[in-house]
Task: inverse folding
């Protein structure tokens, strides 16, 4: 105690030097604390943002050319020209699997599966959608359907809605040279009420039906190539005695059956390896109303869980935990579930049979944000769309692919680590593959990352400046207080102080000042980084407006605030480091000073 | 009474360029209540002998016995604190402590209370012929003679048995030189110290009860009047 008091007494008697030492140590500690605090905050934020942000890319095959096509319109009695895209050879998904591509999810081309669910209520019968039918008709009198031609219903094979009138008008609207239809013949047609003639004007005209589906197949093999077929491609055929015993007749029956199964009794089931790859989920246009989203184990273990839409769940009074029976009949890799039509036949002209008959537990019920902006109709979700982990499908769908085609933005996507877009692009360019349009989305992560990286650099500069100044200050002042005080040490030694007591005498005062400086400096540094944290928090909250689902989960917003609070532990650590550094430098110098023979110093003898 | 016995002490030390044979088989005795002078040319080994007597180092060969006990077996920190005191040519007071604090330092180090140590320090400062005014002064405010007196007071404060003085008058004028020599003599004769003064100054040596001459690391006793 006496040694400490004497040490402090000496420091008190050199106030300028002592105060300067204290202030400089405090400044170095403040720099270190601020730099360390900011650095840690940036690191924490990056980790937090990593969990919050995802970087995905959608992939779309570019058309090789745009061609002008013409379609006849009997209402206008002229051809209408429209642009059509030609895609050329389909580029396989495998081109995205190249050396160095570091994917978190995907790349995947998602299929939606038609699940035959006759026990569930799929659509509201009062929804007022257009009618469609597969119907046998005879014209009331001979005529060419180059305009509304009144026909009489002979046999209704399928209709969306019950059609009570015995007649309706048929127009082969897009066919510039329709053939004569005879009143004594019966024809089978697949039609929908296109309301073409006069529907735009004040006179709606007759309730006109136009051709809809033809006998056709787009069935593809597992590798995506079209399976050749010999189906007629007709949307109208003459029904003769024994017609349904013929191949074509059975195909017309199959079309009717397929439409019956499809529209009222099927729901699209989309299989994915990550819901964030789906633009509507990624953009935050969907949110969980009940339950949970998919967790990694759902994908990795192929758990039979599903997310159902709120409307579907309400219509069928379903809740989280209910089990859904989903017999999957065919896969559609080409079209969006929101667009892909019914009436898919196999290459043999038959109805697809169930290839996967399973039960999925509802883990969550999602809804779509009202008025959500999307890129297009195909990107939107079907109102009954169900999502399942891709890995939960146990059987191969290779024999039941109703449609396959080139990659589209709404079917194909992948996820890469945040901040690696440029790296991925440079690797992709090295592949030399042209023909794909790859669009990246990161919700502003790159901008945020740039800002944080700038701040991290600043933090690093502060850290280095703090560290360098701390070392310089400590070396200089330890030199002043120890090496330059070697005579004092020698006197103390000659007065009988042991080396330990001399060490304590020299060290105690220095350490006390260093500790006080560190406490003040660290506190100032904490305040500095806390202020910076406040500013970052505001930026972050602003950015969260565009993040997936965050708008609807208050926990996330609270977490945002929590994560960005400055960290007092950093100040404690940096302060302690300065103190330890001071002790280290001081002890080294003391050790060196004590090695000198006291009398040699005091009597002036040089050794 | 024989207080210090130096027995065939040999000591060498290395400088940057060479090894110096500072002492060669030095033997001598120092008795209580006597003042000794050790004289000799620069580099003859006087300061080295002082260093060994002060317990700051140990001889390479031979031994130093203090009241019959070998320095090698003693705790040399305690020896320096309790038995021996050193006064230097350059005074070597603590520059940031006042005269009173400098003198009370060894006593506080030995565990004496601050107040008691200060009181005793005042007495010692008075005994070396300095007034109370000097007590609050820092070394830089004192003359050389005053500083040396304070240094002697500090040496006496440890209440040891041996007082070593390394050229104590080297930086002083004649008047102060005599004062210091008187104080040292008084310490030997009145207080029973064994005072060993290393000096170049024949006037100082003349005041000693016994004179040793150091020559090329060897010690010879000089006869009075020689």
Result:
């Amino acid at each position: 105690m006496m040694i400490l008091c004497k040490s402090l007494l000496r420091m008190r008697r050199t106030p300028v030097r002592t105060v300067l030492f204290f202030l400089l140590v405090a400044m170095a500690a403040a720099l270190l604390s601020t730099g360390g605090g900011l650095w840690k905050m940036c690191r924490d934020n990056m980790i937090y943002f990593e969990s919050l942000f995802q970087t995905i890319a959608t992939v779309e095959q570019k058309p090789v050319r745009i061609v002008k096509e013409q379609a006849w319109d009997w209402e206008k009695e002229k051809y209408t020209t429209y642009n059509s895209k030609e895609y050329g050879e389909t580029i396989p998904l495998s081109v995205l699997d190249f050396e160095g591509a570091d994917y978190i999810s995907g790349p995947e081309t998602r299929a939606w599966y038609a699940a035959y669910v006759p026990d569930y209520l799929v659509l509201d019968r009062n929804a007022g959608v257009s009618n469609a039918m597969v119907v046998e008709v005879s014209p009331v009198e001979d005529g060419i359907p180059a305009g509304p031609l009144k026909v009489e219903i002979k046999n209704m094979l399928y209709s969306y809605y019950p059609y009570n009138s015995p007649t309706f008008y048929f127009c082969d609207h897009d066919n510039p040279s329709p053939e004569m239809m005879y009143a004594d013949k019966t024809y089978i047609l697949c039609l929908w009420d296109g309301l073409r003639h006069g529907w735009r004007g004040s006179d709606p005209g007759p309730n006109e039906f136009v051709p809809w589906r033809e006998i056709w197949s787009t069935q593809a093999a597992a590798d995506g190539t079209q399976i050749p077929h010999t189906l007629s491609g007709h949307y109208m055929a003459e029904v003769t005695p024994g017609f349904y015993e013929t191949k074509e007749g059975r195909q017309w029956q199959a079309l009717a059956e397929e439409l019956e199964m499809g529209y009222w009794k099927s729901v699209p089931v989309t299989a994915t390896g990550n819901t964030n790859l789906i633009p509507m989920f990624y953009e935050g246009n969907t949110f969980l109303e009940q339950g949970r989203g998919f967790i990694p184990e759902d994908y990795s273990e192929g758990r039979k869980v599903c997310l159902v839409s709120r409307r579907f769940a309400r219509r069928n009074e379903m809740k989280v935990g209910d089990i859904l029976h989903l017999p999957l009949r065919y896969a559609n890799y080409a079209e969006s579930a929101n667009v892909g039509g019914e009436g898919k036949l196999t290459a043999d002209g038959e109805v697809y049979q169930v290839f996967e008959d399973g039960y999925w537990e509802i883990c969550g019920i999602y809804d779509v944000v009202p008025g959500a902006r999307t890129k297009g109709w195909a990107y939107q979700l079907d109102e009954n769309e169900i999502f399942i982990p891709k890995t939960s499908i146990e059987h191969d769908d290779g024999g039941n692919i109703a449609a396959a085609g080139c990659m589209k933005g709404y079917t194909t996507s992948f996820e890469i680590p945040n901040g690696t877009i440029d790296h991925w692009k440079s690797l992709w360019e090295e592949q030399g593959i042209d023909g794909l349009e790859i669009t990246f989305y990161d919700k502003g992560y790159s901008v945020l990352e740039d800002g944080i990286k700038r701040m991290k650099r600043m933090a690093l500069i502060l850290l280095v400046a703090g560290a360098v100044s701390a070392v310089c200050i400590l070396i200089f002042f330890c030199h002043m207080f120890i090496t330059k005080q070697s005579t004092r040490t020698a006197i103390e030694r000659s007065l009988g102080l042991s080396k330990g007591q001399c060490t304590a005498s020299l060290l105690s005062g220095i350490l006390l000042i260093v500790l006080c400086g560190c406490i003040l400096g660290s506190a100032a540094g904490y305040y500095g980084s806390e202020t910076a944290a406040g500013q970052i928090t505001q930026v972050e909250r602003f950015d969260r407006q565009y993040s997936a689902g965050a708008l609807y989960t208050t926990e996330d917003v609270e977490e945002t605030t929590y994560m960005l609070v400055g960290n007092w532990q950093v100040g404690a650590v940096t302060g302690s480091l300065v103190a330890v550094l001071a002790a280290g430098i001081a002890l080294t110098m003391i050790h060196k000073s004590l090695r000198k023979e006291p009398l040699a110093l005091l009597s002036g003898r040089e050794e | 009474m024989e207080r210090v016995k130096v027995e065939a002490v040999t000591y060498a030390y290395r400088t940057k360029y060479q090894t110096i044979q500072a002492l060669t088989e030095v033997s001598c005795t120092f008795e209580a209540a006597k003042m000794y002078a050790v004289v000799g040319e620069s580099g003859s080994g006087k300061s080295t002998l002082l260093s060994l007597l002060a317990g700051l180092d140990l001889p390479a060969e031979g031994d130093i016995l203090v009241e019959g006990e070998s320095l090698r077996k003693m705790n040399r920190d305690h020896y320096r604190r309790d038995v021996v005191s050193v006064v230097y040519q350059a005074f070597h007071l603590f520059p940031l402590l006042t005269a009173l604090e400098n003198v009370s330092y060894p006593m506080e180090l030995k565990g004496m209370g601050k107040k008691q140590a200060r009181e005793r320090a005042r007495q010692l400062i008075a005994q070396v012929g300095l007034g109370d005014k000097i007590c609050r002064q820092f070394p830089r405010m004192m003359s050389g003679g005053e500083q040396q007196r304070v240094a002697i007071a500090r040496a006496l404060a440890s209440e040891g048995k041996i007082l070593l003085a390394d050229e104590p008058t080297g930086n002083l004028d004649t008047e102060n030189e005599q004062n210091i020599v008187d104080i040292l003599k008084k310490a030997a004769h009145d207080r029973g110290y064994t005072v060993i003064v290393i000096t170049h100054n024949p006037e100082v040596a003349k005041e000693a009860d016994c004179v040793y001459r150091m020559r090329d690391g060897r010690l010879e006793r000089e006869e009075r009047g020689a």
In short: The longest helix of chain B spans residues 174-189. Residues 31-59+68-222 of chain B form a domain with the Rossmann fold fold (CATH 3.40.50.300). Chain B touches chain A at residues 13-15, 47-48, 50-51, 54, 56-57, 77-82, 86, 88-90, 92-97, 101, 105-106, 108-109, 154, 158, 166-167 (CB under 8 Å). Chain B is about 35% helix and 30% strand.
